[in-house]
Design brief:
Layout (H helix, E strand, L loop, with lengths): L2 H27 L6 H26 L4 H18 L7 H9 L5 H28 L3 H8 L12 H21 L5 H19 L9 H7 L8 H35 L5 H6 L1
Length: about 270
């Protein structure tokens, strides 16, 4: 294992441990108030964005093998799923919950605001960590002024379509695994995310999360702000909501089919 990879893994572990301790302390102290859910969103989205920043740097500039990058993506997704404790960490997911009336509109907006606030804080926090120079990779990145390039390698319509389809696929897996035990479900969702990163990563990075995209992509050279909004904000939202609408439609059809009255066998023979 190279020194750059070891340093990045140390940063990832530090982020997860610090976030978990903070989450337990803050949520435990505010368990009897309405702030616990919003604090959970803040800390969990911060954790998600910081880890994505480090993985993106390691993948883009660290020269690691694609297989290792995908393995780290899968492991990170599993860890996030096991530690979020009810937090969503994705504005698209909040909108899905609001659509199903699990959140009132005000609660959904406040959760999304927390997620974007945490995304902005994560962007500043990782630069402070990189500025310490824990590895040669961090030092080089600091000397380049923390410059990054957009992963978008396709025309606008194709890039938007890739994010939409990838978000649709992941949300479909999330919906279909709702009844699984959490310890099994996180692996299914992590596998879906990793598959989408493999399929669409070379086109857009397969970010699938508007808050993470705001933190990791919007300051990179490449598409304009409006193009980023279309690719990384609108497309994932449309993809996830399309999956939910289709799932609801299919469920309704199956329910009507299974609950439709059936004639007794004797009646059928008589007919």
């Amino acid at each position: 294992m190279s020194a750059d990879v070891a340093a990045s893994l140390s940063v990832l572990a530090m982020v997860v441990v610090v976030s978990e301790v903070t989450r337990r302390l803050l949520i435990g102290a505010r368990a009897d108030t309405g702030l616990a859910a919003y604090l959970g969103e803040l800390v969990s989205t911060f954790q998600l964005c910081c880890c994505t920043h480090e993985l993106k740097l390691l993948s883009d500039a660290g020269g690691i093998e694609p297989q290792l990058a995908l393995t780290l993506t899968y492991l990170a997704a599993v860890i996030h799923g096991l530690t979020f404790r009810g937090a969503i960490g994705n504005p698209s997911g909040v909108l899905v919950h609001a659509y199903h009336a699990r959140f009132p509109a005000g609660c959904a907006l406040r959760r999304i605001a927390c997620q974007f606030g945490a995304a902005g804080a994560a962007r500043g926090a990782v630069r402070l960590v990189w500025g310490i120079g824990l590895s040669e990779l961090h030092v080089r990145h600091r000397l380049l002024g923390f410059h990054c390039s957009s992963p978008v390698r396709a025309p606008l319509t194709k890039a938007a379509g890739v994010e939409l389809v990838c978000a649709f696929a992941v949300q479909t897996v999330i919906t279909c695994t709702q009844r699984l035990e959490e310890k099994f479900r996180v692996h299914a969702v992590a596998a879906a995310i990793t598959t989408m990163v493999y399929a669409g990563g070379s086109v857009t990075g397969a970010v699938l999360n508007p808050a993470v995209a705001f933190s990791t992509q919007f300051l990179c050279t490449g598409p304009s702000f409006l193009e980023n909004c279309l690719i990384y904000w609108l497309s994932p939202v449309l993809g996830m909501l399309s999956s939910v609408l289709l799932s609801d439609k299919v469920s309704a059809v199956l329910w009507r089919t299974s609950s439709s009255p059936r004639l007794p066998l004797s009646s059928k023979k008589a007919a």
